Amino acid sequence: MLKYLLSVVIGLVIVCPASATVEVAEMNNDIDVVWSSSDGLKMEIYYSQRKDGVWQEPVRITDNHYDNMYPVIDRDSSGKRWIFWTAYDSGRMEIHYTSGDGEEWQTSELLSSDKKTNISPSVVIDKQDRIWVVWSANNDDLDEIMYSFFQSGSWSDPDFVHEPNEVPDLLPVIDISGDGTPQVVWRAARGGKNVTLSSRWTENDWSEPLIEEIEDSEKDESEEKIIELPQFVNRTSMVYVRVY
Fold this sequence. Notes:
By secondary structure, the protein is mainly β. The chain has one domain (3-165, 224-243). The protein has no helices and 23 strands. The strands form 5 sheets. Strands 1, 2, 3, 5, 6, 7, 8 and 23 form an 8-stranded antiparallel sheet that branches. Strands 13, 14, 15, 16 and 17 form a 5-stranded antiparallel sheet that branches. The protein is globular and about 45 Å long. The model is unreliable at 1-21 (pLDDT under 50).
């Protein structure tokens, strides 16, 4: 079951916009962290991993004329990491991405879209190594949720997760459900209320969005475990942590 709160928790994946620590269910896993931080001129993307309990030296992923923000990360069955983020320049926001082994990274590429504004990407990789990406997009109008997936060396044409409408749809998060199918949750306005919607992939299209009932769960403090992020993660409002 997907859970959407101020912080987005998907199994062991935590987007943590307001704290330098993150709560996870396991402590013995490898961890990837990506974040956006200023180099004095522009916002750039950085990466590090915790391996065998030790944080590795950070790697700078971007070095260009864009403001690069809101990165996310996942890795495929071969261990290759895939990072996606929002790149801003001259009034246009694009989704850029790169892949690498954690040390060497490919030159970043554009995930094509005919929308002027493309923000808030979310990524997950399924058991077939299909790379699923969702994001919010608009042409100076109301946001809609878009998606694309990478398979056999090429991207599918970007398309809508839901039918376009006259209300904003924002902040999508994608995960793999218990039966192995992609599922998206996002925030939206419906019937004059702010709600959380979800949709599942059904062979070749997305299901009709359903309103999710979100219940606050009580935390067992005795089982709560904290990971201290390294000091070089110096900006905590654009940090994404992936625990494997």
